[in-house]
């Protein structure tokens, strides 16, 4: 309202000046009155501007918080099918970037829109009051402009939708990369994956260029209409003055009001673009928020029988199941089986046979398709049904059903929390449900239950030895203080603590050594007998179900299945072969019969029986192999616990002297775009001082007395000049906006790839920090790049045009009258200081808000990545509550926002303060005859125009603050050096380095960051080139830590690691790792084809023949060749629809293709069925010829042929030798073998 009021005051002021021979005292009196009015309006304007920024910022923050909560609420309650297309990276980005876009649009952008709209309405009302005929003609221009604007905006909405979807997919892929940093670095896959990520961003860039053209049309139309008003107003206004007696003051009041109206529209154009982008993001969020899951745990309907009276008998009646993403493959094919209540049932079979699918159906992660209506009633009676207790699973309340079932998978997922909290999560839905906000005194019963569960899971011994015991924090990203086996025991404790009616161990003990596995299974069977728990587990089964390719091929008791000599007997024979003769020659130890590895009914009956009347054999369940010698790799990767992490200051952000030149280099890299756009913006900025100069000439024309014809001629001349300016502005605006926005798209792409490259360059320990989780980094890479680049688009156009506008106006005012200009610009330094402080304060506010959002995004992404575990535990509501509390607790303080509002208010009141000075001081100069009327009005116009321009710049300060904060963080990544020990190469080191394979540890110790105990203690050992060396021992002993040192994921805390006599720190890391290849238990695949995943990190063309060869060796060729596109088939999101064994075999093929000098196998066959393992082991035996092979295993039959076997326990080498010598020693290895028989 202030600027329309200024126009009224201005009209009165100019009316007093534009008369022949004005009275000095009169015009001075009017000037004094108008100056005081402007001063008062400036104060009100400043207060109102600061208040609106504060209110809208707080309101938008609340809106964003509610929107995040609604989005997360919807996401965590979605069904499994939803997550086939939506990954954790996309969710994290939506929480930070998209909702941030909505917040910005609903905050200061919406405030500026209302400001501009209110200015528009007030200006129109004032114009219609003082000059209705002229206002009506000028008003007719607005609908035309609106129609043109709507026409050019429509295509942008479709493009924005495509951009939003593609951006989500790119961020999901980014999260895959960042969550598997070890594989990325081990295979030197950084450049390959960055190129693939950049390829996805290229598609975004192409759509972004189309969006740039749409934005350019939007802004050029608005500026054209704005300038056209000048021309029309002067042309028609001259007729109104000469023919209808319109007062000159009324003409100028109407003219300036329409100028303000159109200027307001131009002012809000970038904000309109932001609101349009926000609407697209909001539409995508709305689709997710409003999506009703196919299986909604919030639905309160369904049966809730008393658990004590409920029979947990499971019936599968002609069950056929097909995953939606693989419509041509039947995961289950007409399976009919019964799992008796209170009994132990084993489900065995090759990988990919459908075992884990049954567990997913029990939890209703998926539902069976309805029976075909064409079947007759008799056939439909029990077809394709899964029953529990004689009732279809769909009839039960979903939340209640999941509370009765506990599942432990081969790759157990823990969450970033304390061990106590992780186990207590299993109590969700029970009377003892854990409340994190409850006082410690009320948690005694819960702690007792957790400790009891940890003791049953054989985890209490190591948990109690940790510095903080149960309160030790672990990371959900498979790094932290726990090994793989320890993590698995925590997961078993979490399953047992809820005392379920149905317990499913889906290879849930695969990472445990034999002794701990035996004790754990004894506890589980004791629990099963005591509570009548229906158990699907690995050992001691009443009934065995044998699966193959989704079909039930055999079923029965152990002895009966052996006599059938079918698939089960074949599996037993394959597994038994591996350890025949394991202890031959040991006369005083285990007998030949005991140690042969043959599984006989007699021995199994002695080892594992439920009762003396019903001996139960020991066989796998929901697993891939018989458990004679089971095992899996460990993750010995440590990271700081959260308390210590919170005490460590974040990376210091670089100062402007550091990030400024780098930012300039990014800009100059897109110089044709930014340079051309800025040059066009210069032209736009120059048009406004030109227009101001023409206003002075127009005022002179309208001061002509008694010659209407001459007045009209002069007015028509200047009207035509404005028309030419309007056409020029249209062209320059389109060029500037298109070039700048096109440059933004290219710079954003480069910033994202550069950020990813800088992050991937960091050491592995960098990613062990909770603050650098894959979810948090994914969200900020996208958000920072967007914020740092987008400010150079429409924002820079407006800032640049306004700056040139201001410079030109200041120069014009000084040319016309330096006396007026010097005094008028006295308030300018205060306005500049206010702008600077505004940027500084808002940048701090954005920085604190960024930390909050990173944590929230990481938390949400972690739980989305493990959504099946969240669903199985029924923790959707708990996750939501914790997310809400974290957002509230980490909300940034509002003090910076209040300070920024003060600075903003001072800046926006500047133009009215300057107007007051000009009117008072300029009139004084004019009264003394030191300046002409045209010069005075032009100087006034130029000075006010400079003030307007400064005000426009102020409206973009929040965007500038966000860009500064974002690029400082990007620069911090780029400047950060990898924190690894680098020594100068020795003179004897050959380049490029080609390893022979000799490895020596010289008193090496390893202490992970933030931990008090060593993972390895003074380890000394030698591995000769060409040897096959194995490490075995209890879980958590330090085996995988040795492999981590060899891979140089970490450097020894003390001691030296040498390869071929060279300290590894002297060997360039890329050259060193090119000689290594690793296969881990966690099968890591990336979105892309099988060809791309298998050839990952290979720097040459690979023929189909080579691919087929390694795939046959990895026993995966038959599966790949059965797919429609064979090697070019996409593996999907992390290969989720393949079995664990299939994913593992793809990873083995990837390792074999690399043909490394040193091959590292960290439980490489743990996820394979026995038949596949047999062939893979043979392939490894052949591949180990001529290279150094290092294995980590619990399954001792896989390493008995190793040249040297090291037993690792408590971070130390307990003993070493070959298989026979270690058995003869009758030490720790002897005990391990004995326990696995």
Task: Report on the architecture of this protein.
The chain is α/β, with parallel strands linked by helices and 1237 residues long. Helix content is 59%, strand content 9%. It has 44 helices and 22 strands. The strands form five sheets. The chain has a six-stranded mixed β-sheet, sandwiched between helices. A six-stranded mixed β-sheet has the order 18-19-20-15-21-22, with helices on both faces. Strands 2-1-4-5 form a four-stranded antiparallel β-sheet, covered by helices on one side. β21 and β22 form a beta hairpin. α27 crosses α28 (818-824). The radius of gyration is 37 Å and the shape is elongated. The model is unreliable at 373-380 and 577-651 (pLDDT under 50).
């Amino acid at each position: 309202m202030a600027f329309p009021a200024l126009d009224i005051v201005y009209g009165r002021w100019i009316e007093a000046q534009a008369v022949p021979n004005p009275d000095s005292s009169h015009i001075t009196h009017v000037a004094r009155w108008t100056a005081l009015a402007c001063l008062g309006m400036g104060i009100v304007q400043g207060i109102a501007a600061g208040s609106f920024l504060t209110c809208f910022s707080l309101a938008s923050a609340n809106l964003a918080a509610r929107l995040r909560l609604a989005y997360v609420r919807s996401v965590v309650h979605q069904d499994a099918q939803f997550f086939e297309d939506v990954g954790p990276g996309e969710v994290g980005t939506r929480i930070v970037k998209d909702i941030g876009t909505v917040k910005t649009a609903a905050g200061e952008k919406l405030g500026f829109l209302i400001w501009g709209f209110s200015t528009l309405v007030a200006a129109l009302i004032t114009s219609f009051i003082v000059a209705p005929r002229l206002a009506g003609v000028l008003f007719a221009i607005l609908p035309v402009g609106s129609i043109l604007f709507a026409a050019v905006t429509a295509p942008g909405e479709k493009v924005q939708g495509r951009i939003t979807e593609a951006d989500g997919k790119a961020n999901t892929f980014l999260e895959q990369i960042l969550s598997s940093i070890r594989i990325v670095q081990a295979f030197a896959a950084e450049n390959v994956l960055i190129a693939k990520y950049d390829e996805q961003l290229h598609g975004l860039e192409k759509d972004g260029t189309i969006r740039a053209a749409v934005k350019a049309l939007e802004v050029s139309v608005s500026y054209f209409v704005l300038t056209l008003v000048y021309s029309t107003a002067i042309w028609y206004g001259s007729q109104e003055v000469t023919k209808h007696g319109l007062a000159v003051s009324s003409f100028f009041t109407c003219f300036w009001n329409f100028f303000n109206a159109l200027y307001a529209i131009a002012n809000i154009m970038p904000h309109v673009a932001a609101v349009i982008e926000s609407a697209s993001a909001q539409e995508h969020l709305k689709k997710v928020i409003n999506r009703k899951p196919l299986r909604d745990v919030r639905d309160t309907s369904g049966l809730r029988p008393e658990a004590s009276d409920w029979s947990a008998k499971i019936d599968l009646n002609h069950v056929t199941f097909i995953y939606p993403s693989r419509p041509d493959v039947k995961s289950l094919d007409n399976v009919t089986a019964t799992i008796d209540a209170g009994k132990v049932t084993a489900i065995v079979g090759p990988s990919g046979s459908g075992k884990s699918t049954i567990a997913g159906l029990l939890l209703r992660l998926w539902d069976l398709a309805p029976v075909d209506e064409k079947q007759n009633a008799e056939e439909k009676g029990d077809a394709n049904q899964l029953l529990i207790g004689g009732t279809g699973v769909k009839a039960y309340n979903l939340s209640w059903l999941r509370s009765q079932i506990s599942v432990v998978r081969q790759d157990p997922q823990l969450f970033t929390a304390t061990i106590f909290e992780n186990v207590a999560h299993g109590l969700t839905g029970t009377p003892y449900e854990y409340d994190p906000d409850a006082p410690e005194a009320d948690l005694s019963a819960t702690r007792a239950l957790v400790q009891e569960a940890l003791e049953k899971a054989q985890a209490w011994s190591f948990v109690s030895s940790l510095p903080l015991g149960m309160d030790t924090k672990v990371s959900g990203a498979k790094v932290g203080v726990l090994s793989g086996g320890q993590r698995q025991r925590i997961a078993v404790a979490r399953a047992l603590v809820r005392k379920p009616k149905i317990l499913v161990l889906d290879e849930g003990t695969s990472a445990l050594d034999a002794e701990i596995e035996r004790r754990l299974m004894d506890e589980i069977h004791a629990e099963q007998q005591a509570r009548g728990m229906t158990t699907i587990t690995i050992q001691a089964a009443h009934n065995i179900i044998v699966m193959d390719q989704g079909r039930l091929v055999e079923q029965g008791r152990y002895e009966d299945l052996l006599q059938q000599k079918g698939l089960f007997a074949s599996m037993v024979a394959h597994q038994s072969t591996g350890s025949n003769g394991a202890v031959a020659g040991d006369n005083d130890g285990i007998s030949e019969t005991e140690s042969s590895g043959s599984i006989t009914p007699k021995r199994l009956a002695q080892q594992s029986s439920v009762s003396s009347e019903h001996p139960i054999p020991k066989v796998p369940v929901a697993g891939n192999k018989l458990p004679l010698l089971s095992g899996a790799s460990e993750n010995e990767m440590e990271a700081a616990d959260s308390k210590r992490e919170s005490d460590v200051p974040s990376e210091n952000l670089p100062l402007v002297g550091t990030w400024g030149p780098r930012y300039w280099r990014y800009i100059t890299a897109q110089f044709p775009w930014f340079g051309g756009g800025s040059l066009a913006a210069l032209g736009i900025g120059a048009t406004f001082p030109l227009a101001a100069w023409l206003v002075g000439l127009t005022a002179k024309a309208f001061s002509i007395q008694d010659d209407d014809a001459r007045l009209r001629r002069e007015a028509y001349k200047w009207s035509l000049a404005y028309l030419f300016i309007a056409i020029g502005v249209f062209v320059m605006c389109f060029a500037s906006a298109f070039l700048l926005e096109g440059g933004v798209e290219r710079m954003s792409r480069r910033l994202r790839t550069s950020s990813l490259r800088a992050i991937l360059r960091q050491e592995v320990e960098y990613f062990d920090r909770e603050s650098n989780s894959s979810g948090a980094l994914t969200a900020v890479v996208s958000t920072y790049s967007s914020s740092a680049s987008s400010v150079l688009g429409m924002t820079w156009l407006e800032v640049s045009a306004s700056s040139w506008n201001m410079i030109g106006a200041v120069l014009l005012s000084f040319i016309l009258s330096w006396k007026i200009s010097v005094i008028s610009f006295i308030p300018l330094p205060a306005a500049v200081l206010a702008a600077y402080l505004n940027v500084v304060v808002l940048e701090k506010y954005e920085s604190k808000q960024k930390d909050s959002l990173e944590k929230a995004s990481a938390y949400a992404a972690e739980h989305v990545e493990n959504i099946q575990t969240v669903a199985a535990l029924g923790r959707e509501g708990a996750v939501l509550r914790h997310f809400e509390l974290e957002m509230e607790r980490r909300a940034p303080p509002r003090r910076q926002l209040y300070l920024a509002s003060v600075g903003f208010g001072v800046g926006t009141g500047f133009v009215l303060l300057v107007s007051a000075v000009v009117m008072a001081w300029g009139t004084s100069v004019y009264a003394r005859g030191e300046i002409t009327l045209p010069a005075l009005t032009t100087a006034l116009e130029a000075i006010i125009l400079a003030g307007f321009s400064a005000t426009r710049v102020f409206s973009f300060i929040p965007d500038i603050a966000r860009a500064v904060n974002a690029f400082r963080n990007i620069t911090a990544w780029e400047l950060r050096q990898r924190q690894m020990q680098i020594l100068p190469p020795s003179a004897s080191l050959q380049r490029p380095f080609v390893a022979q394979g000799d490895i020596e540890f010289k008193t090496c110790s390893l202490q992970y960051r933030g931990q008090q105990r060593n993972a390895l203690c003074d380890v000394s050992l030698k591995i000769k080139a060409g040897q096959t060396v194995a490490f075995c021992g209890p879980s958590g002993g330090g085996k995988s830590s040795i492999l981590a040192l060899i891979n140089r994921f970490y450097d020894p805390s003390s001691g030296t690691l040498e390869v071929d006599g060279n300290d590894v720190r002297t060997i360039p890391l890329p050259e060193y790792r090119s000689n290594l290849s690793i296969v881990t238990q966690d099968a890591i695949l990336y979105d892309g084809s099988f060809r791309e995943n298998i050839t990952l990190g290979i720097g040459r063309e690979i023929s189909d023949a080579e691919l087929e060869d390694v795939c046959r060796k990895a026993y995966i060729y038959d599966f790949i060749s059965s797919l429609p596109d064979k090697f070019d088939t996409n593996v999907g999101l992390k290969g989720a629809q393949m079995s664990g064994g299939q994913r593992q075999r793809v990873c083995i093929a990837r390792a074999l293709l690399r043909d490394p000098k040193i091959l590292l196998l960290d439980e490489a066959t743990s996820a394979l069925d026995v038949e596949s393992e047999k062939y893979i082991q043979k392939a490894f035996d052949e591949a180990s010829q001529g290279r150094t092979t290092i294995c980590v295993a619990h399954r001792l039959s896989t390493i008995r042929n190793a040249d040297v076997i090291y037993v690792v326990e408590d971070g130390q080498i307990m003993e070493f030798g070959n298989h026979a010598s270690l058995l003869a020693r009758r030490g720790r290895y002897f005990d391990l073998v004995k326990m696995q028989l």
